[in-house]
Specification:
With 249 residues, the chain is α+β, with helices and mostly antiparallel strands. The protein contains four helices and eleven strands. The protein has helices spanning 2-6, 9-22, 116-137, 205-212; strands at residues 36-45, 50-58, 61-69, 73-81, 86-90, 99-103, 108-112, 173-174, 181-182, 189-191, 201-203. GO terms for molecular function: phosphatidylinositol binding; zinc ion binding.
């Protein structure tokens, strides 16, 4: 099916429309063999609140961006190679339903579909694309993933020292290794995580100690990748702000 669509005029036209929606700021998406599998709006769990994002699934990449004008204009384009992607379902809780984790070595986050059927279709298509890519390349699935950030709303105090209360002056920071919300004094260290950045990034003292002694996987054990403790934020609280997890803190 994918091979048959790869060189079709309809597929070329659809990809061209996506390119035009992102404008000059977006990267070119048309390459030989690339097929647009599907598209839709998903709610992406960002640092401060859930936000609506437009997603496009191709046979080799996942693309998403901010919605400026629905079906006409998007910005802040993100491109994720599917070879590096693994996905895990998230249990429903409160307003956050029909969700799953998209995990990569550089960035991991949760998304939510409008219905259970839509979630199932997205996950099945993503898994099929990843499986086909790995089969063709002979590569093995990625076993290293960036931490999923705990949203700001989940922590009124530092998740490490359990003492420092967050205020407009005492700001929240995120450890790039475990994803915990931590205070400044608990995250003064920097450590090189090559999959995430070419420069040392902020990590909490707990993860720094483990990384320094070579116990690199242990600092993930305190927080399950299943993301069973879903945030209680309202899905209706959506803005057009930039993705918060791309900030320096």
């Amino acid at each position: 099916m994918v091979d048959r669509l790869a060189n079709s005029e309809a597929n070329t036209r659809r990809i061209s429309i996506v390119e035009n929606c992102f404008g000059a700021a977006g990267q070119p998406l048309t390459i030989p063999g690339r097929v647009l599998i599907g598209e839709g709006v998903l709610t992406k769990l960002c640092r401060k609140k859930p936000k609506a994002r437009q997603f496009f699934l191709f046979n080799d990449i996942l693309v998403y961006g901010n919605i400026v004008i629905q079906k006409k204009k998007y910005n802040k384009q993100h491109i994720i190679p599917l070879e590096n992607v693994t996905i895990d379902s998230i249990q429903d809780e409160g307003d956050l339903r029909n969700g799953w984790l998209i995990k990569t070595p550089t960035k991991s986050f949760a998304v939510y579909a409008a219905t259970a059927t839509e979630k199932s279709e997205w996950m099945n298509h993503i898994n099929k694309c990843v499986s086909d890519l790995l089969s063709k390349s002979g590569k093995t699935p990625s076993n290293e993933h960036a931490a999923v950030w705990v949203p700001d709303s989940e922590a009124s105090v530092c998740m490490r020292c359990q003492k420092a209360k967050f205020t407009p002056v005492n700001r929240r920071h995120h450890c790039r290794k475990c994803g915990f919300v931590v205070c400044g004094p608990c995250s003064e260290k920097r450590f090189l995580l090559p999959s995430q950045s070419s420069k040392p990034v902020r990590i909490c003292d707990f993860c720094y100690d483990l990384l320094s002694t070579g116990e690199m996987t242990a600092c993930q054990s305190a927080r399950s990748d299943s993301y069973s403790q879903s945030p209680k934020s309202s899905l209706n609280d959506v803005s057009d702000d930039d993705d918060d997890e791309d900030s320096s803190d």
